[in-house]
Amino acid sequence: MYKVNFDLAASARKEMVQDGFAPDFPPGTEEQLASVKAKPAPAVDSAADHSIRDLRNLLWSSIDNDTSRDLDQIEVAERVANGIRVLVGIADVDFDVPAGSPIDQHAAQETVTVYTAVHNFPMLPEVLSTDLTSLAENQDRLAVVIEFVVDSGGLIASSTIYRAVVRNKAQLAYNAVGAWLEGRSGPDAKVAASAELQAQLKLQDEAAVKLRAQRHRLGALNFDRVEAVATISDGHVSDVTAAQKTRANDLIEDFMVAANEVMARTLKESGTSSIRRVVKTPERWPRIVELAAKYGTSLPANPDAGALGAFLESRHKADPDHYADISLAIVKLMGPGEYVMSKAGETGEGHFGLAAQDYTHSTAPNRRYADLVTQRLIKALLSKTAAPYSDSDLEAIARNCTAKEDAARKVERVMAKRVAAVAMQGRVGQHFQAIVTGVTPKGTFVRLLDPPVEGILWKGQQGADVGDKFDVTLTSTNPERGYLDFARWLS
What we know:
six-stranded mixed beta sheet, five-stranded mixed barrel, alpha+beta, 17 strands
């Protein structure tokens, strides 16, 4: 058994380097940051670009994780004659990070912020991503605003994109807002203090529910995957718990998806080449059909998102305990998303999981380089200037973003296992309820119901199959390798 003082932070940095990342910012970063800090924000009324609107008076709010400071997205809504008008404000990161600058070159190489429980490796210096380019509460910030009207059927009736100066009036958290929207608790102090904010959030939720229902009618898939969250105090991991997805998470996700669709369609209709986010039609559809058949469901021979969505919904209702596992299996069989260059005038591949033909990433420019590139493309379109990237540039960027996203997932997956192994060191010998998640030539794998960690069943695995539930004993942990070993417990 390994000692509790295993250095997770050092192992995270080592893993980053091994997987092709450069955790340190390049020479010239501090000079550029000093220039950004001294840079005045544009005066809206006298700006040369009169298309920058002043929307600081609106009741903007953000909803994110409890500890998030790199805020990319804020929202506000109003009821109009033909539905609900939604405004999604996206941090104008490009204003402070010009293309080709030292910080931009580093971001172009890294392409993504990598989150590990013990340390985050930001794509942009934190003085930018968590301060100067973050849509922080009570700060005037430049934003790209994606505006659309959601009609009574959940369709986007009209849309437009423009630049604005905004002010986040309320920085909120998923857990508190979600519990309130679901009726599990009262509002937190910030929401309770403002009847206007309460009405605003309920209106946003109403629009989000309509958007979600329409997406599901079109065949969008609804996955439910267990996400483990580590409890860390003074750098030490003490526990791992399951993150609970709430109605507030859904609200932000629904607005994000709608905003990304509007952005993709706007660029497409203007004849601008862009970067798209696609999930291709599953090549392993026959295996998905085979898996569904085990549960008594017959899926069509050809890929059908609507039929798959109906199957997933039926499994969620029939067996919620195992739904996370069937979700994970389907996600793996569908294959990962990827970035591709979409040439002007061409339709290209869509996003199978969202049942969306036109989709991009644009709502997180502080954390993803593809979103920053998309922001530059739309700003060029708005200002009627030449696109800042050639098709070959976009193709190379898309390829690198996909590769680095895959690498980031690997780092995060490895570190999640190491964190779990450290958190569980003091619980060797204890009994837990577990579900079998995989039976392979390498071994039989189980996931505990609480805490939601995974490991290998090295004793008592005979006859165990995916979906079986029984008690296990934790026999050992290995933080360096991220291993948890279990034995079946017979009381």
